[in-house]
């Protein structure tokens, strides 16, 4: 502290923050800046084109709820997964046609007056998504169904999920929420608005992991791998704890347990469920899946 005072008025805030950050008893969080990048001086052949996206909605159920804010930003990455060029950020508010619940307003700050008469510019939003090599979100299984419902022409696009397609624990992170991950990377931001969440997602994607590659590279590599969905249809009730412990999740709509397994792990998983769950007298259903179907409500 004495050193900081001694620096006097000529010290910049960044210099003081850096000084404090060097002390083992302190850690400085910096406000996350907007990402505007043109390291490659234009888009070049061989670059991956992604579209970072986030939505705020009137609730959690895609069948009953609607988008009230959509934000997206195109970006281009090199072969190492580093973001080298970013496009212009876009975000739109949209009137859902009914009052926004008070708990949604408390969470997002979006009130009825903010969305009155507002709407998403469908042609721009749909073209930005369709022209990308893939779409990426931090919980694609939530965002994708809402986006496909609102912009049906975007259905079938490849999606990457930074929540599920990265082994955060193996990379030394605790927790998987966007805000918690960014905090561990040294950033803070005003969460629960689609526009700022997209910026946070871009910084997350650009972060280099201990393994050497970026989050983007790890997530894309995981997303493109072939996989299978194993559906434990008509599994005996008494095996529910066994299935849950194995990583199966209850599909309330389909009324059965399901699990996604990699192509290389499929045979072992199939043998396990036939013997341990069905006792050798029945079989599960299974189907292939890809990053074009994995997060879709129709997948």
Tally of helical runs: 11
- Label the overall shape: globular
Unreliably modeled segments: 1-10
Structural class: alpha/beta
CATH architectural label of the largest domain: 2-Layer Sandwich
> How many distinct domains?
3
The CATH class of the largest domain: Alpha Beta
Q: Proportion of β residues?
A: 15-25%
Radius of gyration: 22 Å
Tell me the distance between the termini.
57 Å
CATH superfamily of the largest domain: Ribonuclease H-like superfamily/Ribonuclease H
Q: Topology as H/E string?
A: HHEEEEEHHHEHEHEHHEHEEHE
Compile the SSE list and pairings.
Elements (H helix, E strand, L loop, with lengths): L1 H6 L5 H9 L8 E2 L16 E10 L9 E11 L5 E4 L3 E4 L8 H7 L3 H4 L6 H9 L3 E4 L2 H11 L8 E3 L16 H7 L2 E2 L5 H13 L8 H9 L3 E6 L7 H7 L2 E3 L4 E7 L3 H11 L8 E5 L10
Parallel strand pairs: 1-8, 2-6, 6-7
Antiparallel strand pairs: 2-3, 3-4, 3-5, 9-11, 9-12, 10-11
Helix pairs in contact: 7-8
């Amino acid at each position: 502290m004495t050193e900081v005072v001694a620096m006097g008025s000529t010290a910049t805030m960044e210099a003081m923050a850096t000084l404090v950050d060097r002390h083992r008893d302190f850690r400085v969080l910096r406000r996350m800046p907007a990402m505007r990048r043109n390291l490659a001086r234009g888009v070049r052949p061989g670059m991956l084109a992604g579209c970072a996206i986030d939505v705020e909605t009137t609730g959690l159920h895609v069948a009953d709820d609607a988008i009230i804010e959509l934000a997206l930003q195109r970006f281009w990455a090199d072969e190492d997964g580093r973001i080298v060029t970013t496009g212009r950020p876009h975000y739109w508010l949209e009137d859902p046609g009914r009052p926004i619940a008070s708990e949604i307003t408390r969470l997002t700050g979006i009130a009825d007056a903010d969305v009155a008469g507002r709407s998403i510019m469908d042609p721009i939003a749909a073209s930005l998504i369709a022209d990308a090599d893939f779409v990426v979100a931090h919980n694609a299984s939530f965002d994708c169904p809402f986006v496909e419902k609102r912009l049906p022409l975007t259905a079938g696009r490849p999606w990457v999920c930074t929540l599920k397609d990265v082994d955060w624990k193996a990379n030394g992170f605790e927790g998987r929420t966007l805000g918690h991950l960014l905090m561990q990377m040294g950033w803070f931001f005003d969460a629960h608005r689609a526009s700022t969440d997209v910026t946070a997602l871009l910084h997350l994607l650009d972060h280099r992991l201990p393994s050497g590659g970026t989050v983007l590279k790890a997530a894309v590599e995981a997303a493109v791998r072939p996989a299978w969905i194993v559906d434990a249809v008509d599994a005996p009730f008494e095996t529910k704890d066994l299935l849950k412990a194995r990583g199966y999740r209850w599909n309330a709509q389909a009324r059965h347990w399901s699990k996604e397994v990699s192509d290389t792990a499929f045979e072992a998983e199939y043998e396990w469920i036939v013997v341990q769950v069905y006792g050798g007298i029945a079989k599960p259903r299974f189907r292939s899946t890809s990053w074009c179907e994995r997060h879709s409500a129709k997948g």
